Amino acid sequence: MVNQVKILAVIPARGGSKGIPKKNIRLLAGMPLISYAIKTALKCKEITDVYVTTDSEEIAEVAENYGAQIVERSSELSGDQVTLDPVIYNAVLRAEREKDFKYDYVITMQPTSPLLKPESLSAALEMLEKEKSDCVISVINKPHLSWKRQDGNIVPNYVQRLNRQDLPPNYMETGAFVITKRCMMTEKTRMAGKISVFQVSEDEGIDIDDKNDWILSEALLNRKHIIFRVDGYALLGMGHIYNCITLAYSMIEHEVLLVIQKDSLEGIKKIQETNLPYRVIETEDEIEHIIKEFRPDIWVNDRLNTTEEYMRYIKTLVPRVVTIEDLGDGTRHADAVINALYTDEELSGQNIYSGWRYVCLRDEFQVERPKAFSNEVKNVMVMFGGTDPCNYNRMLYDIILHISDRYPNVRFNFVVGIGYDMEKNKLITVEEKRVYVFPNVQRVTRFMREADLAITSQGRAIFEFASMGVPAIVLSQNEREKKHSFANMRNGFINLGIREGIEPELIENTLDWLIKTQAVRRNMYDLMIKYPLREGLERVKNIIVGRDRGIF
Hints:
alpha/beta
């Protein structure tokens, strides 16, 4: 719209709310409810003046503090039976007398729609001009199969039952705004002439009428935009990917975005399976553009060691930065460092949270519980993560095929990850040897529930096996993984170290010893199940959003 067009925003706010006492000035997410409408109107560059019409001195004082001008509403216009039309018309006349000019458009904005965005107001004004409308009403589109009473019977409001996405539009008015040409307004109506509807999101269309609306609005206003920067590929492994997916799933109350490098082919494939929003970047130079577009409140980095330069750069773009499993120099500049795989003794600092208390178990482990201890080993599970860079799967496959006849009552299940090349490594099920291979399973707890003993790598899987009470032999994929200190005998694990120092005979002997020695396995089981690992996810969520220190 051209600059000389004069637009008045009127916010009606009575003081006698009954459903939620003092609703218009009660604090919603730390601010008076009415302040949201005032701030939205003031941020809309097309609006000339913002007035609040009220019968309450208290509301008037709060509204003035947030930049609104006030129209004192008379008692005749403050009754329960008075509609908004004469109230808004009266406010327009009063404002025009004060300003000594006539407005071209009047916007009625209810204070009970706190999530309305200034951009939506601007877009609606543009639509009004483009469509040459006299009035634009904010709506949400809620197509539903509905029913009505007719001639004493319940009958459908539709001709054909369709899926929701195929139903015709069903526009429902919201309290967000009504835009009216001034020349079309009278004391009895603000909706005349050619009427258009402007569809807002369901969030923007919320109209606070009761406590449930209030609770929902507060949750949405407290919602954060969170970017997870993560990579996952054959050499690096997939633990970072699984961890960020777990966190992203758990943060449904927030807006999340996963950002991953294009060479992380296995990681991209896994993220695609989740239907979580993600962006693929070719270079780190694209980060700044993504940040400007998504406007994150929080940046979560799960990519091993960060540099001071990198962390300082991200801190200039995002208010809060959290880094995970990070031993780099950049940690001293992060707002929080979450290193579940390292013990408290290895790290220090007020912003560092380390050790098993900060493990994020996936959903399936949150609901599953350890089975009772098995006196006899009937099921051995082999699992080496999403990519298995050391190819332990093939090593164990050969060992078990060689020794399986010693254990005629034992079944061996290989659970291999999304990034492992089974065809190249020739891993196939051999039923006569009771060796079974399962690629890219969706719920590994199905196998852990049956496992009496496991052989695994030293990544996050150690916490998963511990949560399920499965005694495990551990082999490290690399030197860094060797530092994951939870996998030791004090916690129920037999740790054989890294591949260069492991002979097949050592694995054979250890496996044979554990299968035959019930007392050792019982001790390992008891040590594992004493840890309340399922509490870690909520703890980490609180750290990420800053609730651990009352930041947000």
